[in-house]
User: Fold this.
Amino acid sequence: MIQFGLLSLVMVGLVTFGTTADAATKIRITMQLPITSPLSQNLVSFKEKVEAESNGDLLVEIYPAAQLFTDKEVPTAVASGQIEMGSASLVRFAGTIPAVDIFSVPFLFNSLELVGAATDPDSKIRQLIDQAMAEKGARPLWWQPYGLTVLLTRGKPVTHPDHMQGLKIRTFGKALEMFVNTVGGAATNIAASRQYLAYERGTVDGGMTGMLSVQERKLFDVMDHLSMTHHSDIEFVVVINERFWQQLDQTHRDILTDAARQVEKELRVEFTKIEEKATQIAIKNGLEIHHLSAEEKAAWERVSAPLRESYVKNAGDIGVELMLATEALRDRLAR
Assistant:
């Protein structure tokens, strides 16, 4: 009888737990980076805040390291409802919304101050992009910084556009492909997770990525020079399925929105330190860092300037609005 009583208690406990879990709303988030990445830990912070504020009514499950979907699959997976939420590089949404590629237009967003102002949740640039993405079925909850773009090479550094002649360069997104081809290189679009192998095998002579990626993927093991070109900005965006969002009650929407604002601010504030740590680790592992002179930077900006017109031509009406808003922001910050 005692054994039966214990078994009954265990079964009651299981039934109670199942009922609680069934009553809660589950939110799955897919992410391409490992759980140790600052961007994945940012998702963990979001999970903790949401579950605490909702008293367990909202349960968040994180699937890092592309366990469910790769970076390029996230926009479609979230928009179609295959998963509730996902984090992916902003450029991955350019297939359906070419205008989001504005952050990849060379030397348009080339300072942290400008990036900070443009990605502020209340900025016109951010609001235009967020609205366009929501209309396609994937509503942005918050953005995650991944730093300004750097250029990795082996054997010799690339600090002037003339140095790009004939080099095969790993890129991500059409804007950067056009950039490389414009300055005499040969662009090759390679997934972030395959960079290491491409560099190790010599498939490409160099590549564009973020400083954090250099650290996380140990790219300093296969490349020896890094130029701080800072020619574009890399942003990840955490999106939620629009239909799922509309089905949530207002209280739950407010909890998700508030948590998203908090964790975005936390990551944005800490990211300068995160990048600096990544740089020091790269240097310690033998990577030689090169900073552009004023003359070299001017040369890059001069040869890539026509790409702004190409962006506007390909991005449609929203691209025109975004470019005007960006130029106005640049002028304001320059005063």
